[in-house]
Design goal:
There is one protein chain. Helices cover 37% and strands 18% of the residues. It is an alpha/beta fold. The chain folds into 2 domains: 149 residues, Alpha-Beta Complex (Aspartate Aminotransferase, domain 1); 239 residues, Aspartate Aminotransferase, domain 2. Strands 4-12-11-10-7-5-6 form a 7-stranded mixed beta sheet, sandwiched between helices. Strands 1-2-3-15 form a 4-stranded mixed beta sheet. A 4-stranded antiparallel beta sheet has the order 13-14-17-16, covered by helices on one side. Helix 3 packs parallel to helix 10. The longest helix has 22 residues. The protein is globular, with a radius of gyration of 21 Å. 49% of the residues are buried. It binds pyridoxal-5'-phosphate. Pyridoxal-5'-phosphate (PLP) binds next to helix 4.
């Protein structure tokens, strides 16, 4: 296809596409690994590929191949039929997690809807409340939105679904004090992503596990961002060594193809009985083929084993940056999930990076967020982090960061 220029694309959006996103007027047309190009031929190093969905970068070859093969064989069949692909995909996820069964859907919000429903169904009509955490983010559908304890996302949209109890992040005593006889579950992102890459302590998560055990509650980890290798482990709960009853997955689950899943402990999964929940496209052959190829790529390319070196390389650059820039209040990193908190607004730094050919994100106004691909090369880390560090220093008026580490 001959693409339109970024300017021509911008005028199409201006006239025909609802402006519910703040979009950059850049028409991205092609990607390969951590590189992406716009229709004007400009190359970018992408430290935020696919908003966290492209954990293997753009167009990972095995996923491209698997989808191309699958699309020519069988595109879609409803869940009234079985496909070996969906069964094998579920097995592969379970083999790498815990004694669970899978429900498939299309997105993170849908995975969380399934988890909320399962918790209520399993616990019975008297136990329906779900405790969630301030600063958390669980999606935009009404159940997931009600679970999201950030007032800005509820503005103008009320009334919310009832039955959620919001508590501050990190305080076990307060969580305990809010549990009552109608509480069914605790839902938490082990690392708050949109909330600013806030990493729960191991003690806090272990404490939640104990509270759940003591009070007959289900512990649900929203692993939409932390799942599938993002932390350098298959799943975020393994990073913390705390076992939840349910995990929800999406984003990188299918390496950039839309797909979501809920994995629920086998003891409780049966409470989601036929007719109680469904998803037309859930676990479709294309997403299943991509999901399988995602797991195979991580294993065949040994990406979890190589993760430490890359994670450490990011950490080195970040530590040098922190020394150079007094406007950085905190750096938080868990594997390939990085938040750089500033005492100033982050948007001008995102714009500066874009101008210099590096794509990043800013969340909560002052947290620069990087969700790089786990197959980014060391050279690409050095190149992009040098540009990133320079942009942070330049925009905040500090001296340029110390020379980036060499090989
Ligand atoms: C932790 C978490 N949960 C749920 C969601 C919602 O996922 P989706 O946009 O696929 O519905 C997101 C999206 O950013 C997320 O970060």
């Amino acid at each position: 296809m001959k693409h339109l220029s970024s300017t021509e694309t911008d005028s199409l959006f201006e006239r025909y596409v609802i402006a519910n996103y703040k979009r950059y007027p850049v028409n991205l047309v092609r990607g390969e690994g951590s590189l992406v190009w716009d229709s004007d031929g400009r190359e970018y190093l992408d430290l935020f590929p696919g908003w966290g969905c492209n954990l293997l970068g753009h167009c990972p070859p095995r996923i491209v191949q698997a989808v191309q093969d699958q699309v020519a064989q069988l595109i879609h069949v409803p869940n009234t039929w079985q496909t070996d692909l969906q069964g094998l995909w579920a097995k592969m996820l379970v083999d790498r997690s815990f004694d669970a069964q899978a429900f498939f859907c299309n997105s993170g919000a849908e995975a969380n809807e399934a988890a909320i429903k399962l918790a209520r169904l399993h616990q019975g009509p008297e136990k329906y409340k779900v405790i969630t955490f301030q600063g958390g983010f669980h999606g935009r559908t009404y159940g997931a939105l009600a679970a999201t304890a950030q007032p800005k996302y509820h503005e103008g949209l009320g009334p919310m679904l009832a039955g959620f109890t919001y508590v501050p992040h990190g305080n076990l005593n307060i969580v305990e004090s809010r549990i009552d006889s109608s509480t069914a579950a605790i839902l938490i992102e082990p690392i708050q992503g949109e909330g600013g890459v806030r990493i729960a302590s191991q003690e806090f998560l272990a404490g939640l596990r104990k509270l759940c055990d003591d009070n007959g509650l289900l512990l649900i980890f929203d692993e939409v961002q932390t799942g599938c290798g993002r932390t350098g482990h298959w799943f975020g709960y393994q990073y913390f060594d705390v076992q939840p009853d349910i995990i929800t997955l999406a984003k990188s689950l299918c390496g950039g193809i839309a797909g979501g899943a809920m994995l629920a402990n086998r003891q409780i999964a049966g409470s989601l009985r036929p007719g109680m929940h469904a998803c037309t496209f859930g676990g479709n052959p294309i997403s299943a083929a991509a999901g399988i190829a995602m797991i195979e790529t991580i294993e065949q390319d040994d990406l979890l084993a190589q993760a430490d070196t890359k994670i450490e390389r990011f950490a080195q650059h970040l530590s040098e940056l922190q020394q150079a820039c007094s406007h950085i209040t905190e750096i938080r990193q868990a594997g390939f999930m990085i938040g750089v908190e500033l005492s100033v607004e982050g948007a001008p730094i995102v714009a500066k990076c874009l101008e210099q050919g590096v794509l990043i994100n800013c969340t909560q106004g002052n947290v620069l967020r990087l969700l790089p691909a786990m197959n980014i090369t060391l050279d690409q880390i050095d190149q992009s982090m040098t540009i990133f560090s320079d942009a942070v220093c330049e925009v905040t008026g500090q001296t340029v960061a110390a020379e980036a580490s060499s090989n």
